[in-house]
Amino acid sequence: MWVQAIPFIFVHAACLGVFLPQVEFTTTACILLVVNYAVRVWGLTAGYHRYFSHRAYKTSRTFQFILALLGCSALQKGPIWWAGHHRHHHLHSDTEEDIHSPIVDSFWHSHVGWIFTKTWEQTNWRNMHDFAKYPELRWLEKHHWWPGVGLAVLCYLVGGWSGLFWGFFVSTVAVYHVTFFINSLCHIWGRRRYQTTDLSRNNFFLALLTFGEGWHNNHHHYQSSANQGFFWWEVDISFYVLRVLSWFGIVWDLRLPPKNKQFPDQDQPQGDHFVEPAKPDKLASKADLLLPPISAQSVAAAAQAVVEPVMAVAQSARESVAAAAYIMGETVAAAAVSARESVAAAALVASESVVSAAHSAKESIVAAAQVASESVVAAAHSAVPTATVVALVAVPMVTFFQTVASQST
Asked: How far is CA 56 from CA 48, 109, 144, 242, 277, in A?
């Protein structure tokens, strides 16, 4: 058992790689995570389940192989193995022969433990004679690891280590457990619209996560329907995509539940692809005989015990965040007021300094002008006597030299 579980354990352990320093939650890694989750969940629900297990619609051989590739990329073995065991589950749902019943066995066994038992290790070729005739599907059944490994390499090439760990390993583990919850939780938690021979239930939250598989009681009531959400308010993304593909002729002959199967008050005829609804007393006696180890009441009580502390913590966290936001707002407001006052004071001081400097400069200029004016006047006053003396001396000399010059001639 544990040898078979090694790859499964490795994929889970690899998710711890997101804490490595070189692994970041980049935009590319986020896109790879979401796309790989959505495409592979659809490949399992619309391909492995509704097509290979229940033949709820028809398609070409090429698109049939594409559906098988998408399912294999989720690392849940090949389509023949997966669908063959699922058909066995519907034949013996919630009985001793069921391969994964939380009513007969434990929750852990129905969720994941059954995969690693030797009883269900081999492919049930006898239940899958309708698809076992295709050689390409037989080849893919033998090499079912390759699509997953190829997808891992592609994630690394596109997004590096972040693309590998976030885009492949984390998304793979998420796909594992949302689909496994249909086998486990959808038989102990949810509402029952139809009285089937098992304890299957409709679960809105799992329907959202699995693109419609959470309407499990609907499905066990009428197994061959391409839609598992029987009414408009029951979200079924896998069926919506199938409907769009039918517009382009990629798939066709989508089987839908007849009116007398949708409404439980009407007679429900027999058929090859659904089981007769059990009477309430028959269902109750069956549950009593099976002595389930996990009851719906215990699960509800456990869920309540988990939800209440979580809600209390959430309430406390919300109050703490509100208080911190209030304190931060007050601090920011006080800082803004203080900064505004400091800026105003600085502006006032600067304004007064400028005015004082202007007054001082004006006085200095006036004083300098006064000094310059006085200097000019003084210089002028001193220059007048000097000019007079020069004139008194120069005029006789010029006259003398002229007289001498005239006598010489």
From this structure: 11, 28, 23, 11, 20
Give residue 257's domain range: 2-293
Cβ density class 339-354: b for 16+ within 10 Å, e for less: eeeeeeeeeeeeeeee
Ramachandran angles phi, psi of 404, nearest 5°: -60, -40
SS3 content of the chain, % helix, strand, coil (to 5): 70, 0, 25
Is 399 inside a domain boundary? no
Q: Please tell me whether the overall predicted TM-score, pTM, comes out greater than 0.90 for this model.
A: no
Q: What is the pLDDT of residues 273-316, one digit of tens each?
A: 333 333 333 333 333 333 334 444 544 554 454 445 445 544 55
Strand partners, 271: 274
Does residue 17 contact residue 23 with C-beta atoms inside 8 Å? yes
Tally the domains of the chain.
1
Three-state secondary structure call for residue 380: helix
Q: What is the DSSP letter of 96?
A: T
* Count of other CB atoms within 10 angstroms of residue 289: 8
- Phi, psi for residue 99 in degrees, rounded to 5: -75, -25
- Please tell me the predicted confidence (pLDDT) of residue 370: 73
